[in-house]
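Example 337.
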Amino acid sequence: MDPNNIYNITHSSDLDGMSSAAFLVRNLSVPIKNIYFTNYGGELFEDTLKFLKGFRKSGSLLIISDYGVNNKTFSRLKDAIASFKLRGNSVMWFDHHLWSDKQVGEMAKHCDLMVVGENPNCCGAELVYRFLCERNKKSDEIARITHLSDFDPVLIKSVKDRRLIDKVGNAIYYLRGHESLENPRLRRLVLHIAEGRLGHRYIMKAAETYYRISEPRLKKVMGSLVKIKCGGVKVSVGFGKKVRHQDITTRMLDDGADIVIYCAEDSGHSSVRSKAWVESSGISFALGGGGHPNASGFTVKKSDFDLSRKSGRGKFIKKIWELLKGGKAIRRLSPSR
Ligand SMILES: [Mn+2]
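Predicted structure in complex with manganese (II) ion:
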């Protein structure tokens, strides 16, 4: 197939989405102008639908990577995919997020190949790699780093790997900026990853810029942490604005806490992370969220706790204290983990 007729829509938010695209560029020679970035809501999602419905060519192949579905937008996305396919194009979908059987069944009517659904072994980029690409050493390394970054990054043992993954993640956060389907900065990043150069100057410089911009915000959070000790477990709670959650929670863990909770004061989006030996997702579940044992999240509703106010934050801390005292929100895992 002529690579000019292969298109990719990939998730914009992290290394997994970027590496998925990079594998296609690297192995199938997909031109970078055919790589598009999307997310789950807002204008970018609307633009994605417009792209699919406005696609005039036939005989093209669309590969969707590291992008799942949600109940809110499912039927509109399905219709857009259907219209793309009806023009005489093909669709392949590689994703590792949670899909319901019904969603798989309905979307499958409009796809030629689907590898989707919760996957404990492979992230999105690894699926693209395994199913579409030839194996070689450099690609193996891209897949290895991407896997580490996508599955519990808290548990990464190698300091070198963790540093690289932190930097690349921060670079992506910065380069995304105001999201757009054709984001030229992310396209450039994808090209460097495709060359196997995760440590490329362009990426490292973007990570530095992120640090420069975020440093005062990060410092502010670190300077006003609320530290709680409960049954020998050190819990640290932080509030702030416009910082990358993975970054601030890593810092909070490095600061000595066993469990960390970071909440965005404006949106209420919150992340919970913990050291390998303690399971903390019970906190997120109790607050209406979910996730993995050492990495989870939830959203605080402003009507419950107004985190932009001191009184709201105080009330929230009280709630966390009650959850911890209750004894069900956290669980010690075997020390061998
Ligand atoms: Mn992913």
